[in-house]
């Protein structure tokens, strides 16, 4: 007789438990400057953390917050929370108190686990805003129990993942912090499973991967753990991103795989000691999370090698909507280097106009997605969810152009588009032109109020070390290519661009910074 259990798919907790119970002696987790842990070591630690959390009354559906830098305990906790079918609520380690407190309250945390050496003061401040919040420390602390000490009191047991279904919430993530209060996204087991499946099938992994994690384990870094484990690889975890430390680790540990955001790539290229290190072991550099400058990507390929693979997604459809494979990076074609690749075959991806109708090749349209990767919606925000799912598609907010080969080139976010004198200007197009100048390291383009045109184009530019260029030359480059109405009305040179906690250029901060300054004349 056929029953529901016969064809029930295995979800991430099941897969994680199964693979952690195979090959226990295989090396898996290299601690920076420390021990090399085996699959069995990680399995046993995961079991001890499951028992610890359960002994504190936590279980399926419990909301467990985390505030920590890259510690091995973060991986044990993430594994444990998933196998218990609790709800994981990670907080970005670079976030501010206001956002952290908002997330803790909005998520309804049962417990906040924190790293005492870095975040004791922050955890205490959050708890003062939320009386009754239980605090647990990853180590000795004065605010709550020592999670690590409790864990060592338990003997490792066979891993038994909790029973879950596809629509069960596995994680509460928060997005949109640069446009207002963060929005809660309820990631479900279905999405977690499909993310791993697409990453395994479509991403270009070395065999086996020796992966370097220098992005936060609380966020994208942890997403690389299960694919690395399934591919038979191992992972080196750094405390955070430091250019010299990353370059040294690649050389010393013969790293063949790493994930970086564009600003990290720029920092490596601009590191004065870059040429001191042997990076020949690198096979694949996954990059994404924000747009990359095509000239800087060309530079990276020429200096590091043809090892770059781009992924595109967003919190609402994570990690795996499109890919630009290594062989598709053409250093002689900056338009191709500006592409986020082609849609993966697991999803329906379309470019739609404001009436939710498909646009022709070469015409701008919003990237819209259908398929099992798409979120269920924003938690407790029905109107926002309805808006995001208008016409039966997830609306990404990214405007792109598709070429005849199916490659998408994102020209901007819909909310970042500048309307000047009745004309639409996409900042990404202006940024790409300015970035082609050899003196330019980074550039951010935003719209600012203008007494005559409504909005005007402002370019905020970071120059390369010991380089110079006249503002008028940059304005002329854009005017020659795109016309005067798209050219910046002002250019500002700065030491650095503001970044979000995820390392993306913070357009909201740029707009706020220059909104009230008298940079724009009434010409």
UniProtKB/TrEMBL annotation:
Residues 20-378 form the AMP-dependent synthetase/ligase domain. Transmembrane segments: none annotated. Keywords: Ligase. Belongs to the ATP-dependent AMP-binding enzyme family. PROSITE patterns: AMP_BINDING (PS00455). SUPFAM superfamilies: Acetyl-CoA synthetase-like. The lineage of its organism: Bacteria, Pseudomonadati, Pseudomonadota, Gammaproteobacteria, Cellvibrionales. The keyword Ligase applies. This is AMP-binding protein. Residues 429-504 form the AMP-binding enzyme C-terminal domain. It comes from Spongiibacter nanhainus. GO terms for molecular function: ligase activity, forming carbon-sulfur bonds. Pfam families: AMP-binding (PF00501), AMP-binding_C (PF13193).
């Amino acid at each position: 007789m056929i029953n529901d259990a016969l064809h029930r798919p295995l979800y991430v907790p099941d897969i994680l438990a199964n693979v952690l119970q195979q090959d226990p002696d295989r090396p898996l987790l290299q601690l920076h400057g420390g021990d090399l842990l085996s699959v069995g070591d990680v399995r046993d630690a995961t079991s001890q953390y499951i028992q610890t959390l359960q002994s504190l009354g936590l279980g399926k559906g419990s909301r467990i917050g985390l505030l920590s830098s890259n510690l091995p305990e973060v991986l044990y906790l993430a594994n444990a929370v998933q196998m218990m079918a609790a709800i994981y609520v990670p907080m970005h380690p670079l976030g501010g108190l206001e956002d952290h407190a908002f997330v803790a309250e909005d998520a309804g945390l049962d417990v906040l686990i924190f790293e005492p050496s870095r975040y004791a003061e922050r955890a205490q401040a959050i708890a003062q805003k939320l009386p009754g919040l239980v605090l647990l420390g990853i180590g000795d602390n004065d605010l709550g129990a020592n999670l690590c000490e409790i864990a060592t009191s338990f003997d490792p047991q066979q891993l038994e993942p909790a029973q879950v279904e596809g629509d069960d919430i596995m994680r509460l993530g928060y997005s949109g912090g640069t446009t207002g209060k963060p929005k809660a996204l309820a990631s479900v087991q279905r999405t977690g499973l499909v993310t791993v499946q697409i990453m395994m099938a479509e991403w270009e992994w070395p065999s086996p991967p020796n992966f370097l994690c220098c992005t936060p384990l609380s966020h994208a870094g942890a997403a690389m753990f299960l694919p690395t484990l399934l591919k038979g690889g191992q992972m080196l975890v750094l405390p955070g991103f430091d250019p010299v430390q990353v370059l040294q680790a690649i050389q010393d540990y013969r790293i063949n795989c790493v994930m970086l955001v564009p600003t990290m790539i720029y920092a490596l290229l601009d590191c004065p000691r870059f040429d001191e290190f042997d990076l020949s072991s690198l096979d694949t550099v996954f990059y994404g999370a924000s747009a990359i400058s095509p000239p800087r990507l060309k530079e990276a390929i020429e200096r590091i090698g043809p090892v770059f693979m781009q992924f595109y997604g967003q919190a609402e459809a994570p990690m795996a909507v499109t890919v630009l494979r290594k062989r598709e990076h053409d250093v002689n074609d900056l338009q191709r280097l500006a592409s986020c690749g082609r849609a993966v075959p697991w999803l329906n991806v379309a470019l739609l106009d404001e009436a939710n109708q498909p646009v022709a090749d070469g015409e701008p349209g919003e990237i819209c997605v259908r398929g099992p990767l798409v979120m269920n919606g924003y938690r407790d925000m029905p109107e926002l969810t309805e808006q995001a799912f208008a016409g039966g598609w997830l609306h990404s907010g990214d405007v792109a152009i598709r070429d005849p080969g199916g490659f998408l080139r994102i020209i901007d976010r819909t909310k970042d588009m500048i309307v000047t004198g009745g004309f639409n200007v996409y900042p990404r197009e202006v940024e790409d032109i300015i970035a082609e100048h050899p003196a330019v390291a980074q550039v951010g383009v935003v719209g600012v109020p203008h007494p005559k045109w409504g909005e005007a184009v402002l370019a905020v530019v970071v120059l390369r070390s010991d380089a110079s260029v006249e503002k008028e030359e940059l304005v002329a480059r854009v005017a020659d290519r795109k016309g005067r109405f798209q050219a910046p009305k002002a250019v500002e040179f700065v030491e650095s661009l503001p970044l979000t906690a995820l390392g993306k250029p913070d357009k909201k901060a740029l707009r706020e910074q220059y909104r009230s300054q008298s940079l724009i004349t009434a010409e």
